[in-house]
Please model this.
Amino acid sequence: MPVASKVPDEWKDGFLFVGNHLALDFLNTRPISAEGPKELLPDVDALVRWLVASGVLTPQKGKTLVKKWQAMPEASVFLRELLKFRERLRAVVIRQEARLSVSNEFIAETNSLLKHHPSVIALQQKGKKLELEAASEPEKPNDVWAPIAIAVAELLSGVSPGRLRKCEACIVHFLDTSKKGSRRWCSMNICGNKIKVAAYQKRKRAAGKKMRRGR
Ligand SMILES: [Zn+2]
Model:
């Protein structure tokens, strides 16, 4: 299913893509900075930029839609609903990471979104492989529910909860696709180095204490 974000870079146009899954990259549009949680989708313009960065929209389509949607009051209404849904999804993912079940309400909500915003999917040739991908692009703001709903449905049904994880140093969630299943942080560049430096300093302090005691 068309769920992996199509961009390998960690950051694209100011958005974070380390989730290995479109639903998690969507969740990670509210990461934590030094000043606290940061909303990366504050307006319709940012939403369209994220849809382009995540591969849901082509850059060309994004350009057309941003002009159209900026003038539409329903686009802001949609964005508010989308962000509320994102926070409900966050609660579900946190429960999944703790191996707790998904609530019936959230299942019903996702099913309702899937019913009212069905996805058109099609086989696409990717080199020698065939992949099942979304074949329709949103026209109206509400159409964005389709790719979001199918990604969330896939996350909750097709992914082992044991591979869902939160970074040890921040609130970013990711799907651990490493062979050993031992990924611990969102990114080596963002949190990995921070943890390694902290662990090194702790070891150094402990060694210092030991030396002083030994004297
Ligand atoms: Zn992190």
Summary: Helices lie at 22-27, 44-53, 59-70, 73-97, 104-116, 145-158, 188-214. Strands lie at 11-12, 15-16, 32-33, 36-37, 121-126, 129-134, 164-166, 173-175. Residues 167, 169-170, 172, 185-186, 190-191 surround zinc ion (CB under 6 Å).
